[in-house]
Specification:
- It is a single chain.
- The chain is α/β, with parallel strands linked by helices and 329 residues long.
- The protein has one domain: Aldolase class I (TIM Barrel).
- It is built from eleven helices and eleven strands.
- β8, α7 and β9 form a beta-alpha-beta unit.
- α1 runs parallel beside α2, α2 runs parallel beside α3 and α7 packs across α10.
- It is globular, with a radius of gyration of 19 Å.
- The two termini are 35 Å apart.
- Belongs to the nitronate monooxygenase family. NMO class I subfamily.
- Keywords: Dioxygenase, Flavoprotein, FMN, Monooxygenase, Oxidoreductase.
- It holds the Pfam family NMO.
- This is 2-nitropropane dioxygenase.
Length: 329
């Protein structure tokens, strides 16, 4: 049930999605200051002491900004936690959730159960990333407040279902928050997702080439130059199907046809990133091709707002002829 909401001050129904090695303090704070939800994966902050520092920085920065600008919409911040059994650092992450109390916690690659009691105890909400109906039903049964439907076209660990069919199916048994993720990079996509029945959208790739993201300049430039044809989905890198930039694989000397087996799924954030195969391989979603500049988050959100309002107006005009005469009047 949608009994609690941290979304009242949102400018747009958009999450700057949590992205591995991309989302950090600056991106989260800039997104929230711009009036959308700012998210980051806790796995980006290693060791645990760095996660403690990041959460303190985000909390303090937003508290000060709200005090200085009480009339501006400020989005809530969100921590993304991997609950897969391989993540031995999960207890430490949970302790920091309890300490800093992010309004929203998103769980990934595992059940939301480990975080629900803690987050609900301080009034936060829990959203579970899901890629199919089986996982969605399990997350709903576990008590998740929302489901992030990672659909076909999403970057990073991706899904395979049509977002329209996925949302329609989930609405048959779930009445909590629904987020669509998958290839959305503009305000028209936001409007279309709401029309399809979602409450919010995940938008990741659009925020990679921003000034505030942790992505390298070369990664940002590759996003700007690439198109949807430059993507390949494979489980050969992390053990889970993910959407990768082909030029990134090539510059790392990787040929997916020669990688016969997928590695074991290991998402232990207590390990150092430097030793992992995927550290220098870059992911992206199918929204490529509509991103042309590296720019501040605030400029991206300004444009999204304009596009969203324009799309809503166009939708009203396009549907007017199909409405009953009494409604048209």
């Amino acid at each position: 049930m949608k009994t609690f909401t941290p979304f009242e001050s949102l400018r747009l129904p958009v999450f700057a999605a949590p992205m591995f090695l991309v989302s950090g303090v600056d991106l989260v704070v800039a997104a929230c200051k711009s009036g959308i939800v700012g998210c980051f994966p806790t796995t980006n902050a290693r060791p645990l002491e760095q996660l403690d520092s990041w959460m303190a920085q985000i909390s303090n920065a937003l508290r000060e900004f709200k005090h200085e600008h009480p009339d501006l919409p400020v989005g809530p911040w969100c921590a993304n936690v991997i609950t897969h059994s391989s993540n031995t650092r999960l207890p430490g992450d949970l302790a920091l959730l309890e300490k800093y109390q992010p309004p929203i916690v998103v769980t990934a690659l595992g059940s939301p159960k480990p975080v629900i009691e803690i987050v609900h105890s301080y009034g936060g909400i829990v959203i579970a990333d899901v890629i199919n109906l089986k996982l969605a039903m399990k997350a709903a049964d576990a008590g998740a407040d929302g489901l992030a439907c990672i659909s076909s076209g999403a970057g990073g660990h991706t899904g395979f279902l049509s977002p329209f069919a996925f949302v329609s199916a989930i609405k048959q048994f779930f009445n909590g928050y629904i987020i669509i993720g998958g290839g959305i990079t503009n305000g028209q996509g936001v409007a279309g997702s709401l029309a399809a029945g979602a409450d919010f959208v995940y938008m990741g790739t659009r925020f990679i080439p921003t000034v505030e993201s942790m992505a390298s300049d070369a990664y940002k430039e590759m996003i700007v130059r690439s198109t949807i044809d430059d993507l390949v989905v494979s489980d050969r890198i992390t053990g889970t199907p993910a959407s990768w930039l082909k030029p990134s694989l090539e510059q790392n000397g990787l040929d997916l046809t020669t990688l016969d087996t997928a590695p074991s799924r290991n998402y232990d954030s207590s390990q150092q990133i430097d030793t992992r195969r995927w550290k220098s391989i870059w992911a992206a979603g199918q929204g490529l091709g509509s991103i042309h500049h590296i720019e501040p988050v605030s400029d991206v959100v300004d444009r999204l707002e304009q596009e969203f309002h324009q799309a809503c107006d166009e939708m009203i005009n396009k549907t007017a002829m199909f409405l009953p005469p009494c409604v048209q009047a």
